[in-house]
């Protein structure tokens, strides 16, 4: 589909259309649970993603399972393969997608990943497997914070944001849960500017 947003509303051509109260009205960000994901999790992700990226969000199932990405030797799921499959299932109005799974994810060079995204692309995924200790241990609030931070982090990559050296910025790369807990739930001012420029370049 080649819908040109400028054809829909000429106001989009105004260069200052992105401001603190503006909601980008072209396209939605889909939060897509794979398997049995508690609805409060998709709800809190959708709410925070809407606040940060200023796109409407929708919770929608696009994949019933990810067995096709299962690696028997590692007993984990290959996230890059899942992103490729998701990219073929994007609804037309979907500008970016974040899948959420309980399964443990990997890419070949790492023992595990909290998530993966197509840099500057449209699809991303996070795994709750290591981020979510509740209800077995830890508080629901702690799990919620980690999940939201990593969800926004992966979606940030789809808007072409790279890893940030600021250890408090959500785009900071975290190897350990302590690092995830240590960073804030905000972008630093440089990443904010980069995100704003990236959204403008989409022409929405
Ligand atoms: Zn990252
Ligand atoms: Zn940053």
From TrEMBL:
A biological process term (GO) from this entry: proteolysis
Keyword presence, Transport: no
GO molecular function: metallopeptidase activity; zinc ion binding
Essential cofactor(s): Zn(2+)
Keyword set includes Ligase: no
Pfam families: Peptidase_M54 (PF07998)
UniProt keyword terms in alphabetical order: Hydrolase, Metal-binding, Metalloprotease, Protease, Zinc
CDD domains: Peptidase_M54 (cd11375)
NCBIfam families named among the record's database cross-references: archmetzin
Protein name per UniProt: Archaemetzincin
């Amino acid at each position: 589909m080649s819908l040109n947003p400028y054809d829909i509303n000429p106001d989009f051509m105004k260069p200052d259309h992105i401001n603190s109260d503006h909601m980008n009205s072209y396209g939605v960000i889909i939060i897509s649970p794979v398997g049995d994901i508690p609805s409060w999790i998709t709800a809190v992700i959708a709410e925070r993603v809407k606040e940060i990226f200023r796109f409407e969000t929708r919770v929608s199932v696009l994949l019933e399972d990810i067995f096709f990405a299962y690696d028997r030797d590692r007993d984990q799921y290959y996230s890059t393969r899942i992103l490729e499959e998701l990219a073929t299932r994007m609804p037309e109005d979907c500008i970016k997608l974040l899948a959420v799974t309980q399964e443990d994810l990997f890419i070949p060079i790492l023992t595990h990943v909290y998530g993966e995204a197509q840099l500057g692309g449209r699809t991303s995924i996070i795994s709750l497997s290591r981020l979510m200790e509740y209800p077995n241990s830890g508080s629901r609030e702690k799990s919620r914070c980690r999940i939201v931070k990593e969800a926004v982090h992966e979606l940030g990559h789809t808007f072409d944001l790279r890893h940030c050296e600021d250890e408090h910025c959500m785009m900071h790369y975290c190897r350990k849960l302590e690092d995830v807990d240590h960073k804030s739930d905000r972008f630093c001012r440089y990443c904010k500017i980069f995100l704003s420029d990236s959204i403008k370049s989409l022409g929405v």
